What does this fold into?
Amino acid sequence: MTAEQRLALVAPGGDQVTVTLPDTAPVSSVAAAVRFAGGSYGTGFQIGPRGYHDFACTHVAPATTTDRFLVHGREVVVAEARDGESSVATLMGSYHELMTVYAGPAPRRERVFALFDSLRVDDRVPGMVVAPRAETLLGTMSEHVVVVVRDFGTVSIPGPRQARDHVPAHAGAPTRHGEVWKAALPGAEGSTRPVDHAYVLGCARGVAEVQLADSPHRTDRERLDWLDGIAVAWSAA
It folds into this structure.
């Protein structure tokens, strides 16, 4: 039997998700996202490890720092993209960073401060837990955790409340830990290449969406064997 590796991660909502992967390659990154909404208002955040903000401002959308301040003892850094098309504000935790993205310049400091001040943040080694304070009347609309394995692919895991929306009504093909469905990516209809498809993986206690990496360092058979060995399982906090 293929050796396995297990990640015990904490999602933004506080529940734990255990991700089982074939031990054929190390995990290169873990990130998460959460969106809060109430009435006509909604806002989204991305969560990554320390260094997430600097990486985004260096490699994703080159940006220059425009402000720094504290919220509940944690530093918030604001940066504006050099092309003026976007800006980010990031709260620095001990293990993770909480980022939100704005179109165009960031709002004034008072508004950015109020946004992060409205959140309860509990940063832990397995993940950052984030929730709006009760007085905001906001609730969690969606959350997901993303695990990337170099040369194999990306595993995007929706929160347990969103999982049922991702599973087709018909039976899928069996895998080692559940079943899988595939659909051709836009523009790739008729292709037989595994990397030209998106995969929905259903397990007894969780669902994942998998995109295989189009890497020259792995064969299609290796990628499909890796997909076959993935499992996700949620457990309540």
